[in-house]
């Protein structure tokens, strides 16, 4: 069985810096992986390459066994391939003037004909699926509100419901909790873990907060100046190791982890208990 995500020798140079420096990694189906690093470390750049939003200078990316990009060129059938990939943005990426339900239904656009996409025509069955997805994230009562009227946490839940309706096998979440209050951040991470656990979705989530990586993601990949500097168990991310990886930046970026309430939940109560791939 092919890995959910395979990256080989990925390189990307911007005028200001080398954003990705010979990055290679493999993520198996049903894994939930944290991507950590300081601003400018390459986290967002890597996620955008995985989804085919940006072409690399060199290297290869495969998702669900399909070539997303290779040798500096994005696959010509990328629209079809993106049907398998859900992307959760830091700033939600919802159309504020449209109802929440319509925003969720846009997850189907990769799978529908061009004329239906342009006219936003959805069937009764598809609308029911969207309502079920909103119920799964706990905001079905807001289905007919304009998306702009929701709180940040609610908008991010709507974005996750959109991934559910899309039927994404892989979800890439780019700093999904960076703009949220602590309670909303926990709720969003719980929902990502639930999608991973109950739906068998492969999740890669970029985070500044190492405490959330430790709590929710069994595996962490750390980037520093475009290079992978760690790939292993999240539980091994001690302050000592973080200091070795990030030097003087470690305390500023991750020092809060020792006092975080997020780490005080007993292991037996972790939302990752019983993690299993959906059949």
CATH superfamily: P-loop containing nucleotide triphosphate hydrolases
Distinct helical segment count: 10
Q: Going across the biggest sheet, name each strand in turn.
A: 7-8-9-3-10-11
Instruction: Summarize the biggest pleated sheet.
Output: 6 strands, mixed
Q: Based on Cα principal axes, name the global outline.
A: globular
Structural class: alpha/beta
Provide the CATH architecture.
Answer: 3-Layer(aba) Sandwich
Rg from alpha-carbon coordinates: 19 Å
Elements, N to C (H/E)? EEEHEEEHEHHHHEHEHEEHH
CATH topology: Rossmann fold
Kindly state the percentage of residues in helix. 25-40%
Fraction in beta strands: 15-25%
CATH class: Alpha Beta
Question: What does the secondary structure layout of this molecule look like, with pairings?
Answer:
Blueprint: E1 5-14, E2 17-27, E3 32-36, H1 43-50, E4 58-63, E5 66-70, E6 73-74, H2 78-81, E7 85-88, H3 100-105, H4 114-119, H5 124-136, H6 152-166, E8 170-174, H7 182-199, E9 202-207, H8 210-216, E10 219-224, E11 227-233, H9 239-246, H10 249-254
Parallel strand pairs: 3-9, 3-10, 7-8, 8-9
Antiparallel strand pairs: 1-2, 1-4, 4-5, 5-6, 10-11
Helix pairs in contact: 5-6, 6-7
What does this protein structure show overall?
There is one protein chain. This protein has 279 residues and is an alpha/beta fold. It has a single domain, classed as P-loop containing nucleotide triphosphate hydrolases (Rossmann fold, 3-Layer(aba) Sandwich). It is 33% helix and 24% strand. The chain is built from ten helices and eleven strands. It has a six-stranded mixed beta sheet with strand order 7-8-9-3-10-11, with helices on both faces. A five-stranded antiparallel beta sheet has the order 2-1-4-5-6, covered by helices on one side. Helix 5 crosses helix 6 and helix 6 packs parallel to helix 7.
């Amino acid at each position: 069985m092919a890995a959910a995500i395979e990256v080989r020798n990925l390189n990307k140079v911007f005028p200001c810096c080398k954003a990705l420096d010979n990055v290679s990694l493999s993520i198996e189906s049903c894994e939930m992986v944290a991507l950590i690093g300081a601003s400018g470390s390459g986290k967002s750049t890597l996620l955008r390459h995985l989804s085919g939003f940006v072409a690399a200078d060199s290297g290869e990316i495969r998702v669900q066994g399909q070539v997303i990009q290779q040798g500096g060129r994005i696959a010509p059938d990328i629209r079809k391939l993106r049907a398998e990939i859900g992307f959760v943005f830091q700033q939600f990426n919802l159309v504020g003037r449209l109802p929440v339900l319509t925003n969720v239904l846009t997850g189907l656009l990769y799978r529908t004909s061009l004329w239906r996409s342009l006219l936003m025509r959805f069937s009764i069955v598809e609308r029911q699926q969207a309502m079920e997805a909103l119920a799964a994230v706990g905001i079905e009562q807001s289905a007919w509100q304009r998306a702009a009227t929701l709180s940040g946490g609610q908008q991010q839940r709507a974005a996750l419901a959109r991934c559910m309706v899309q039927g994404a096998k892989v979800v890439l979440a780019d700093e999904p909790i960076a703009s949220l209050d602590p309670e909303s951040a926990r709720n969003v991470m719980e929902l990502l873990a639930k999608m991973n656990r109950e739906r068998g979705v492969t999740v890669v989530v970029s985070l500044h907060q190492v405490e959330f990586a430790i709590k929710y993601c069994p595996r962490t990949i750390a980037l520093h100046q475009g290079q992978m500097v760690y790939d292993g168990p999240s539980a091994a991310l001690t302050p000592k190791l973080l200091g070795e990886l990030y030097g003087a930046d470690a305390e500023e970026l991750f020092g809060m982890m020792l006092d975080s309430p997020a780490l005080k939940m007993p292991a037996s109560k972790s939302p990752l208990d019983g993690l299993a791939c959906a059949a």
